[in-house]
Fold this protein.
Amino acid sequence: MYEPLLSRTHDLASAFLETIDTRPVNARATFATLLAALGGPIPDGPQDPMMVIDHLVRSAEPGLVASAGPRYFGFVTGGSLPAAVAAEWLASTWDQNAALHVLSPAMSAIEEVAAGWILDLLRLPPTASVGFVTGATMANVTALAAARHEVLRRAGWDVEAFGLQGAPRLTVVAGAEAHASIRSACRLVGLGASTIVSVAADSQGRMRAGSLAEALARIDGPTIVCAQAGNVNTGAFDPLAAIADVTGRHAAWLHVDGAFGLWAAASPSRRHWLDGADRADSWTIDGHKWLNVPYDCGMAVVAHPAAHRAAMGQTAAYLIRAASEERDGMDWTPEASRRGRALPVYAAIASLGRRGLADLVERCCEGATQMAARVGALPGARVLNDVVLNQVLVRFTSRGGVNVTPAVMERVQTSGVCWAGGTSWAGEPAMRISISGWRTTPEDVAASADAIGAAFDAVR
Ligand SMILES: *Cc1c(COP(=O)(O)O)cnc(C)c1O
C-alpha cells in the first residue's frame, strides 16, 4: 500500500538532493504565484496520494530555497547530513511518540544515548539533563524555566505552584548583543523583556565581564545571567570563564546560549573560546545549525536535573511513568507528544564520529577565513569582525563613500549563485556570511566570493 507512493517520493526527494548544488540557491516564485499553484478549494473527496505528492512537489518546487546546499550563507543555516536525512525519514515512517518510555522504548533509548553523546562531544557535565526541543528558542525557554524554578526555590518560593504573583523579584541580566530569542524566552516565562538588565558589549559583541560585575553588585535577590557562545553576527564568544567567576561570586544562575557556538567544543583548534562554559548551569544548543540535521532540532541542557524536571514535567493518572532507570522524554521538554527528534542527532553523530564532527566545524571556520580574505580584498569592502568562527560581517562602500551594502546584498540574493543576508552592525547595514553547512567546499567559497565581487562591481 505504501510502496509505489514512497518509491515515487524517494525519487523526487533524491532528484532534489542530487541537484542541490547546481540549482539556483534562491527561490524563483513569488508568494502569490505559490498560493495560486498550491491553493484552491478543498477537494470534495479523496484524491490519489500519488497525485497529491506530485502536485505538491511541482507547485512548491519554484519556491524552494537551496538552504541545505553548499552556497547558502544566510542566518546560521546548516544543511542535512545523509545519515540524518535518512534517520529523519525513519522518524516519520516509524511515527513513534517520544513522550514516554512506554510509548516507545526505542525512542527513549535513542534519546538517552544521543543526550550522552552531546554532553561528551560538547564537554558539558555528564550528569546534566537534556531535552530535545524544536530549536534554540525553545531551548532558551526551557532553560530559563528551569533557572526560574531553581533561583526562586533557593529564595523559598515555589514558582511551579504559585507562579510569579507575589514571588520575590527575579532579575535577568544579559549582554547587549544577546540573541533576540533570549528576550522572547523571558516574555514566555513571565519575566518580561524590557526588565532585562543589559550589560555593555565590546566591538565584537562580547559581554564585558567587568560591566557584568558592576551590574550584579547593584542587584539583590534571585538572578539569572544569560551569556552567549557565538554571536549571531560576529561569531564572537562572551568571556565565559570570567563571567562564571562573577556569577559564582553572586550565586546567580548562569545560562549560556550556544546555539551554534557550543559546537566549537568539538574542534581542537576552536574549543579554547569555550573555556569556562562547563561551569554554567544551563546551555542552549541547536542541532539544525552546525550538527547539520534537518529542521527542527534543538537541545536544552541543564546542570540541575531536578530543576529541569520540576519546570517541565507533567503528571496525570493515565501517564504511565518509566522506571527510574528509563527515560521519559517529556520530563525535559515543554511538549508532551513529540516526534523522534533525537533520531537524526544519533545518526549524524554516529556517521561523523568525533573526528568527522571536528572536521565539519573546522572546515566551516576555514571557509569563513577564506571568504573574509577574498571579499575583504575587494576595494571598498571591509570585514568588520574578527573572524574567530564561521561568521563574516562585511560592509561595502561605493567610490563616492556611500554604504551600498543593501544594494550588493539584493544582487547577491537574486544571483542564484549564493545567498547571504543582512544585519545592522554599529548602526549601519552589513552583510552576514555564515558558513555552517557540511557540503561547502573551498571551490564553493571561491565561486561565491566571485559572485559577491561581481555584485559589488555592478553597484560600485
Ligand atoms: C539561531 C540562534 C537562536 C535561535 O535559534 P532557533 O533554532 O531559530 O530557535 C538563539 N540563539 C542563538 C545564539 C542563535 O544563533
The radius of gyration is 23 Å. The longest strand covers residues 428-434.
